[in-house]
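user: At home tonight, take the chain set out below, taking as long as you need, and be ready to discuss the fold:
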Amino acid sequence: MTKSSWTSKEWKEKGNEDYRKENYEEAVTSYTEAIKLTSDNDPERAVYYKNRAAVYLKQHDYERTIKDCDKALEIIPNDPKALFRRCQALEAMERYEEAYRDVRYIINADPGNKAVQPTAARLHEIVQERYKQNSRVSAKVIQMLEVAFNLEGDKEKRESGMNNLLVLSRENAGAELMFKEGIVKMILRLLKLEKNEEIIISAIRILAELCKDNVPRTESILTIMGVPWFLEMLSSKSQERVNAAQYCLQTILNTFSGMNNKTETKPDREMCEKYKKEIDTILTCLVCSMTSRTITGIARDAIIELIMRNVHYTALNWAERLIDINGLQRLMEVASELEEYKYESAMDISPSTRTITSVCLAIIYENMYYDAAKDKFRNAIEEFIKDKLLTPDIESKVRVVVAITTLLLGPLDVGNTIIAKEGIMEMILVMAGTDDPLQQKVACECIVAAASKKDKAAAIINQGVNILKKLYQSKDDSIKVRALVGLCKLGSSGGTDATIRPFAEGATKKLAEACRRFLINPKTQKDMKKWAVEGLSYLTFDAEVKEKLIEDKEAVAAMIELAKTGDQSVLYGVVTTLVNLCNAYDKQEMIPEMIELAKFAKHHIPEEHELDDPDFVNKRLVALAKAGVTSALVALSKTDSQNSKELIARVFNAICSQQDVRGLVVQQGGAKALLPLALDGTDKGKKQAAQALARLGITINPETAFPGQRIMEVVRPLLNLLNPDCTALENFESMMALCNIAGVNNSTRKHILKEGGFPKIEAYMYEDHEMLRKASIQVINNLVMCEDTVTFFEQENDRVKYLVILCEDEDEDTCKAASGALAMLTSMSKKVCWKIFETKSWLDSLKFLLANPNSELQHRGLVIIINLMESEKDIASKLIKTDLMELLMALTKIEEFKDKKIKELAYSALEAAARWKLIKKNTDNAEIQRNNDQAEINNIENIE
């Protein structure tokens, strides 16, 4: 019979079988099929919903558990099982009042149900405590509202009152009470008159907390305040206030879309559809405000960042809609702005605006994942360029070149398409050859951005190198430094290949020295320092330049100080320079056979410089760490550019490869910055960041490296490294870190299991690679201290059998881990005790442990035997019938033991057997004799 002809009951039986075997995904599928085959009011349908809810409960998917229980209760009201499963899910979600309601229904329907009474008692206590707490919170809220919203009151008391309200708003009870007291309208009235920036910021943050994960409150707040109010709050010169308003708007979008602020979050498509109008309104307002002439530069940056975070298909998938409402043209307007142009209708921009805009354009283009969408994107850009060039004045041409430069820093393919259009490159070169400093400056920037690939660089060398040399002679330092970067970029077009040098020997060192002078000069403006670092980012492909730069402490310190500002416009230059210094870029694998083939075909073979040998690289890594590079990376890691995140992660990982400086990385906030990098970014970037976290977790106590909740958050990226696509080193380092985390406490062990860690870790127990196998077993050894792990070994599988076999492994550490795991498992489970005997070699393995010269292995072997002896009489009887008794008695008589505990454990094993009356003591001795250091058991006999 095929599955297509199965009845609903057959699907249910299949689901029950899958559930027992813990094949939860298959169980869900089976119950779902059963549901499909029953009518809406069929009582059997309720059973299937209840069963599927039980599976979801095991998977910790509490939302789905509740939904299925609701559906079951619609068919059979007050069904005890459905109520109890919903109660368990509600309790897990900390919805205690609702959970208590369900357990009360069960008790009212069945007062004699003893199974739910402990749950009822526990929830009753929690609900009573929460009621008392809510009463206290209510009084506190009313008191703080009176203090904070009194315009005549003391300034410090008002600030303190508003901060207290902010703290209260983070608890659901406090947020609900404040909302009912009308705090939203109070804030609206207050901020029309309020001048105290601290109070304004706290008020905006309170609104964000009220909106978080609560759609009804969010809808009400939007109705009262209106989107323009939030945009008004955003337009400020205070970075803290801008951040608060930006966070508030993102929280509103998250609430409507089912997302949260964690990097791995995904939107709920049903919610997005339901609140499509609200989401569209907010994003449309943001797009329209992007080119507002009345907002501040940092507010404009915040608006573009908000758009950037929500347009991608992994978020709200709003990119095509943005193009339809002319959002690209507005972005290009911002991209074409220059701080130097200060006329009446000019936009206020920050030093980071164009960098953020280029990243936003790149993200939108990435979302154009089919040809028609890409064409729509390119057409919109070309239309903007064409419209600008129709105006003959110089300002329009300058703006076009600035916009092209921004494009080249973002969606490179589109930028290259534009610059390849007839007359564009010629126009740029003509502008570079004029005497107008502004035209020279923007043309020079565009040439630098255009020389992004080897073929492009070659074309520009032919056409523009003489112009760049001429501009380098300029008396205007801002032009000179840009021309210098252009020359640096062209001079580095050979990359790390030591055999390719586009310029004369020694030219790169001279260019590096020129960049250094701009960088370390205290009188040099920040903008020019940024360009100097960008020049170094190209020149540091040359190993000789790397060595010279790393020895120049003044230049390294200046570069790090520049990065600490967090200015996104310095990001590329600093991070690329650091990647080059650390040799953290991907290296092409040189296969000997392919090299010989290339020689035969007379192809060019890249050669690595001797100064890029590991010893030199390691020295550079330590020098950078001691110079404070971690602080710079932390400041720069707040970028939204996925490629930049990858580069930052690469530098972090390279630094963390040096064991001696890992403490410095943690001390300077590296672990905190690495977590988001490990969860959001390119695949390579996430792997690099996760490996860096693993390296920190290996050397440093995890509670120190990842304090508080961070120790839980680091588990997922570490588990992501347990993947066949990762290298053996990444697998190994991940397991070493997980081993340390699993050794911290039961909460961390449970979290590893909750994240699906056990099967991923266990898979490496069967690897041929000795180090990976050993690391895996060591993690399992720590995980078995958690009772939830024991169930994995109690099931119908060969896990216990394999551990018994590994107790005889040639590697001593593997033996210790396997026997340690067995010692803990046998202490917690009688099932595991019986499963030991399923292995044919169980007796040999136990003898191997007891007779081992290593006292630690002997200790573990004796604990296993004690656990087996104490578990059940039948198990003890199986042991007594073997020659293990002779070994145990021998261990009680040997005098040479350094570890006295071995003797005591051997006695304990024999005493356990005596308690079952399987052996007896000498009738002349009431107890087993112990005389100081010597002890004996006289005339112990086996009995049937």
Notes: The longest strand covers residues 929-931. The chain has a mean pLDDT of 86. Strands lie at 919-920, 929-931, 934-936, 941-942. DSSP finds 55 helices and four strands in the chain.
